[in-house]
Each structure stands twice: as C-alpha cells, then as structure tokens.
Amino acid sequence: MAANRRRDTALELAVRSRLHAAGLRFRVDLPVRVEGAPRPIRPDVVFPKQRIALFIDGCFWHGCPEHGTLPAETNASYWSNKIDENRARDARHDAVLTSGGWTVLRAWEHEDPDAVVDRVAGLVRLRRREA
C-alpha cells in the first residue's frame, strides 16, 4: 500500500507535461476552498482563474467500470466498501465544486493522455474567451 502514490502518477505526469507544452499554466494539488465544504478539496490539476478542476482517478481505487476489479479472496468486503466510499466522496466533491461555480473534469488512469489534454485545453481556452 505504501507504494501507491497519492499524486504524481504516470498519467498525471504525462498530462501535466503535455498541458505545459501546450502553453497552459496550472496549479498542482492546490487546496480549493468552497463554501459549504468542511475542508478544502484537492484536485490533481487546477486552473484557478478558469475555475476548472481535473481529477485523474485510478481504476482500482475509484471503481472504474471498465477496469476496476476487486480482489476475489482477500478482504473482498473491505475493498468493496472502501471503493464505494471513494466513489461517494468523488460524487460529493464534484457536487460541492460544481455548486461553487467550478467545472469538474475526471479522467481515468487508462485514458490516453493526449485525449485528456485535448478535453482540458479546449475547456480552458473556451473559458479564457468567455472572460
């Protein structure tokens, strides 16, 4: 478990590198404070001026419908509850950020980094034009 990274996963690094190469500037792991939230929420990549929060979710930890599998034998009920709690927390964070005027984007760890960057960059550029 200690080897599981909270941040700087391979996809996060790839996405951040490509976003930076595209000329986009962002904050990493920035605590976002939203009224009504008991504590700050820490998206993986944050565009504060455009109020865009990007979360890059691991397939196992966040219950990916395509790749999220539970251990068959070892503490199956524990892992099922843990992943359900993670998904519920994700939904709460999305709702709180959205109610605070933020746009939340989520990407799975198996996604192509270029596709993730295209989605994010398109939204950032749209927000810049709107401002």
Per CATH, the superfamily is VSR Endonuclease
Question: Averaging pLDDT over every residue, what do you get?
Answer: 91
* Head-to-tail CA distance between termini: 43 Å
Helix content: 40-55%
Helix and strand pattern = HEEEHHEH
Short description:
By secondary structure, the chain is of the alpha+beta class.
Give an overview in words:
The chain has 131 residues and is an alpha+beta fold. The protein has a single domain, classed as VSR Endonuclease (Endonuclease, Chain A). 44% of the residues lie in helices and 13% in strands. The protein is built from 4 helices and 4 strands. The chain has a 4-stranded mixed β-sheet, with helices on both faces. A hairpin with a 4-residue loop joins strand 2 and strand 3. Helix 1 packs across helix 4. The chain is globular.
Tag the structure with descriptive keywords.
alpha+beta, 4 helices, 13% strand
Write the layout of secondary structure elements.
Elements: H1 10-21, E1 27-28, E2 45-47, E3 52-57, H2 59-62, H3 76-99, E4 103-108, H4 113-130
Parallel strand pairs: 3-4
Antiparallel strand pairs: 1-2, 2-3
Helix pairs in contact: 1-4
